[in-house]
What does this fold into?
Amino acid sequence: MSTLSSPEVLRRTGGHRIKSIVFDEATIARRVAELGNEVTAAFPEGELLVLGLLKGSFIFLSDLVRKIERPIQVDFLVAASYGAGTVSSGTVRLLYDPATILEGKHILLVEDIIDSGRTLQRLLGLLGERRPRSLAICALLDKQLAPQRPPELRFVGFRAPPAFLVGYGLDHAENYRHLPFIADLDS
Ligand code: IMP
Ligand code: MG
It folds into this structure.
């Protein structure tokens, strides 16, 4: 693993120093493989549709699906986020609605990180209306700040510290998604 101020890391961040690496590549790979096994075991039969919530889940999802050893379908969804000061209507708006049929299938919603849990709570309502056979969530990281842990949250990679994390899909203003590890930004 490169040191935090090594030329390799600084080349990737454009010279921005990173405070610490919270989960390194090997640790992530081991946990993602375990999650793949857990998912495989949890769905012994039926159609399984893995739905990635973009953009944050794109790297996690691509690694996870290759560790799932049963037939699956893959699709994505893009949810509208509300800017600061914007009062949401309480219903989430989809900018990309999966073309795949959800009805009658096991749905595994893949999310990068759960903070307040609000995004997920709304998505669960919307997806539930499509009458899936079951609805489960797989989140790579959980800050455990959500007031209530939804029963659908069946698979969690890591408990995350209350820091702002970047890398492995997670961004800060669209930067740093490509880092192969998960880091705490130097503020
Ligand atoms: P929630 O609705 O408050 O749970 O927010 C979840 C979304 O906020 C995630 O899908 C991320 O896009 C973003 N987010 C929350 N915490 C972090 C973080 O530490 N780094 C990067 N993005 C984050
Ligand atoms: Mg984000």
The helical segments are 7-13, 25-42, 58-65, 118-128. The first strand starts at residue 18 and ends at 23. The radius of gyration is 17 Å. The longest helix spans residues 25-42.
